[in-house]
Amino acid sequence: MTAMATEAQKSTDRIEKHFEVRAPRSKVWRAISDSQQFGAWFGVRVEGPFVEGTTVKGFITHKDYEHFKLDFQIEKMEAERYFSYRWHPYPSDPNYDYSKDPRTLVEFTLEDVPGGTVVTIVESGFDKIPLARRIDAFRNNEGGWNGQVKNLTKYVA
Amino acid sequence: MFAALADATRLRLLRRLSSEGSLSITRLSEGEDVTRQAITRHLYALGDAGLVRHKRKGREQIWDLDMKRLEKARQYLDHVAAQWDAAGARLKAFVEDGEA
Known about the structure:
The structure holds two protein chains of two kinds. By secondary structure, chain A is α+β, with helices and mostly antiparallel strands. Helices cover 25% and strands 33% of the residues of chain A. Chain A contains five helices and seven strands, in the order αβααββββββαα. Chain A has helices at 4-12, 25-33, 35-42, 131-140, 152-155; strands spanning 14-21, 44-46, 55-60, 69-78, 82-87, 104-113, 116-124. A seven-stranded antiparallel sheet of chain A has the order 1-7-6-5-4-3-2. Chain A is globular and about 45 Å long. Chain A starts with a helix and ends with a helix. By secondary structure, chain B is α+β, with helices and mostly antiparallel strands. Chain B folds into two domains: 2-65, Arc Repressor Mutant, subunit A, CATH 1.10.10.10; 67-100. Chain B is built from four helices and three strands, in the order αβααββα. Chain B has helices spanning 8-20, 25-29, 36-48, 67-97, and strands spanning 23-24, 52-57, 60-65. In chain B, strand 2 and strand 3 form a beta hairpin. Chain B starts with 7 loop residues before the first helix and ends with a helix. At the A-B interface, helix 1, strand 1, helix 2, helix 3 and strand 7 of A face helix 1 and helix 4 of B.
């Protein structure tokens, strides 16, 4: 009964996540900005460093998603505070040329808090992605990424 | 898809369909400043964006929201959001306990 369209517009263009980690900002910065460290927790084999203005390829390491070719277009890196890149969020069709599609923007922001760091992750620009692409992406993915949560145990001491 | 929502008339049309259910172009044009032709154009544009559907009922075209497509768009976003939840948890574990 609400302004359904307005609500739709507001909530479907972006995803925002905040969480606190018990680690200093410099350590969290390294984990996100160093492409090898990023790859270790994200679950992707990145082919080179993250450098502003460059594009670097990556391959998901999870066995059900090895065909996903990721393409990180590094936008901005502000040491220990902000890191952003553009990509195609769900390149599930190995035969489709995603380079023609609009990219979403992923932004990591780090802030100090007592005892650690607040990490904010925003992914935006979903409304530019054609609906057909989004429906296809969902259809190509049966099991979801829930299996990724298993990777969590590798990093817990 | 949501670029189609930018226009105020289209937003109004969607709101009406959301609250009143299926409506004909005649009904949808009632009380609008815009011509019936313009309303029709807007509806077709919303149809192209996958937000509404229409069918013929006698001499009228009846329009309603395409909930299935809206749901799919919502599901996609929920899915990507869940992926970030999982990735965030892995980042947390990595810096707190792991190999960072």
